[in-house]
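Notes to self after the call with IL:
- keep both proteins in one doc
- input above output, always
- annotate only the second one for now

Protein 1:
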Amino acid sequence: MATLRSVKDAVRSALYPAYEARMVKALPADRIPKHVGVMLDGNRRWARAVGHDSAHGHRVGAANIEPLLDWCEEVGVEVVTLWLLSTDNLNRGTDELDPLLDIIGDAVTALAEQRRWRLHPVGALDLLPARVSARLKQAADETRDVEGLLVNVAVGYGGRREIADAVRSLLAEHATRGTSLEELAQVIDVEHIADHLYTKGQPDPDLVIRTSGEQRLGGFLLWQSARSEFYFCEAYWPDFRRVDFLRAIRAYAQRERRFGS
């Protein structure tokens, strides 16, 4: 049985590059999503399935981020948002959370050192340990002038928290201008709130990908994803391959977008 499985794996490895090349060539250039959000889900379940602890799963998952960014560049994606840690995840025990935060910090630092992508932390950084938020801010500073793919790194991120922070920022801004609440209530609209989101100035995600087979949004980009297309992949994040990504892009290109209607 092991020999048969090895043969199948070898055949698959030999055939997939040609298959993927055909997929890339067939993608219509005018139907590539500009902004792709990715929910990197399934690290812990993958680790349990292979007999390792959660930290191992998170490390393998972190190693899969750079290939994903390569694939995005390959097809012409301009913005990627990676959800690495939710605000709910911050309630995990320190035995799991502390190693995970260090793994995330190491991964972001490694991406910044390459100076290939412009990194932009999004999330409630004030909820994170100082050592982690400092690394995220340093990565942003070091890549601020890098031209190319914009990568939003969502750590300590929750969609409801983002909207609350946006409203709080909006109120504070108008308070400094002397605007009364009554005056603000008469003019406030969706654009005012959008201008205070973590992703202000960026296009909303055209496509949101979630790995691990879960089919729910879980609070990811709640405001921005109102008109997004969704693609749910059965593979756990550490097993997510280039062919899986290309299938998601192909599925997006084949859809008739109705923009939330």
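Protein 2 (the one to annotate):
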Amino acid sequence: MESRPKAEREAVRTFAAWKWMVSVVVTLLLLLVACYFLIPVVWLLIAATKTQAQLSSTGIFSLPSHWALWHNVVLLFTYSHGIYVRWFINSAIYAGSVAILTCVVCSMAAYALAKHVFRGREATFYLILLSMMIPGTVAAIPLFVIEQPLHLVNTYMGVILPLVASPFGVYFLRIYIRDVVPNEMLEAAKVDGAREATIFWQIVVPIIRPALTTLFLISFIGTWNNFFLPLVLLHNQSLYPLPVGIQLLLSLISTPAADQSVPIYQLVITGSLISILPMIIGFILFRKHIVTGLTQGSVKL
């Protein structure tokens, strides 16, 4: 009788020790992953504080004796009549417009697929899922061919419109709406005489706000970092977003006709550092909404 409780205590201690070891291993792995992603950012931050001479004469993670961050920022914003500021504004226009329109279009489509019964609903949903398997780079050239006769090439709308139709956004919001929005609430609103537009904007949208915030940030960041589609569709440098503009600066390093007196490396490094600030600020401000939006809904089909 006395050996059984003792064996149980040993089993509890063994399980607790095993759980602690697993927790330590997982924590160490997460720290390694965090370092893997943070080390380039730390280097970028340090390199942006150096002049071009200090960049080649000091260690990778060595702090300079005299910080040149402000000088580099001023040089970047005044280079070529402030073209970097124009690229920054362009990225904000592209990313902001795509994020807002994606939330509106995808939420409407997801609401119809989640709460309305019609012929071909499941086939439409699985067709949307199938389109998620097509890489965006594959569609870039066909989009160019389609947009050219419509006079959308080399325009803001030519970049914005193709990115609004997000299969992931429809899938994500459809799952969320199906599992979070109660059918009883919708039926009660219909009994009270509410129209579909009223039900959607005043009932569904407030409930799915965390998911919309998550989708907004995902769309914003994806468009902000989009490189290939603007590269294919845009030819005017004044319409370039930041990724294409920074790549243009980087290409000047190997251009013989480029002005050698301009520290291109510092322009690229400082421009890259400034380009990631909106994403960092967005995650800091909306991190709670992101966690809620990703965890509150179910992920089953």
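Annotation: The mean pLDDT is 87. Residues 3-69 form one domain.
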